[in-house]
Amino acid sequence: MRNRSWIVAAVATAGVVVGAALYIDASENGHADVEVEATVPPSPPAEDWCVGTRAASLGGDTPLERTLGRIDKLAAGEYADVYTGMGVDEDANAADVWRIPGHDFDTAVCDAAEEGVKLRLHPADVDRRTLDALAERIGEDMRRWDGTFQLREVGVDERGFVRVGVDDPGTAAPLVEKAFGARYIRVEYVDQAYAAED
To answer: What's the CA gap between 156 and 184, in Å, rounded?
Structure first.
């Protein structure tokens, strides 16, 4: 009888020890045994939004495509100084618009939206022309970094920054930010591009 008690106690103790070890292991690694790649954090939720009420136009495009075309014209014209960028969510029949907040532009884009098209308006603190000019300056200087790191791509992100893709972000980030300023630049790792085989 005594041996059974001892065996039960030993098994219970082992169970507690194994359970505690598994709990500690899980809490240290976040319950995931895979490496997760770093990504650009998602943009904050839209501070404002609207759903289009404009009557549908005739034409082969969808209401969303026609709305995007109208917004592009507004952004290239009188609102170029407040427009930052736009992303499309076809599944939701919606678009995300980043802009320097202002009543006039917000009203104009909402008036441009056809019935049922949702626009999510996000704040930014820079216009697209400024970002395009910064991206161009960085791109023109690509060979400057040869031997230090590989500058693989430069492009404007609609959320209000210039994305700089490199092979070694740890080396590149301080150099690029020193040369061009850090405010609107995000330096990230990007794989080497390869030519497609025929």
So the answer is: 10
Q: State the DSSP code for 114.
A: B
Distance CA 81, CA 128 (A): 8
Least Cα distance to 93 among 59, 68, 58, 111 occurs for 68
| Torsion of the alpha carbons at 119, 123, 124 and 129, rounded to the nearest 10 | 30
How far apart CA 95 and CA 20 sit, in angstroms, is 48
Please name the residues in contact with 159: beta carbons below 8 A apart, sequence gap of 6 or more. 43, 84, 85, 87, 98, 122, 124
The 10s digit of each residue's pLDDT in 105-163 is 999 999 999 999 999 999 999 999 999 999 999 999 888 998 999 999 999 999 999 99
Give dist(CA 77, CA 87) in Å, integer. Answer: 19
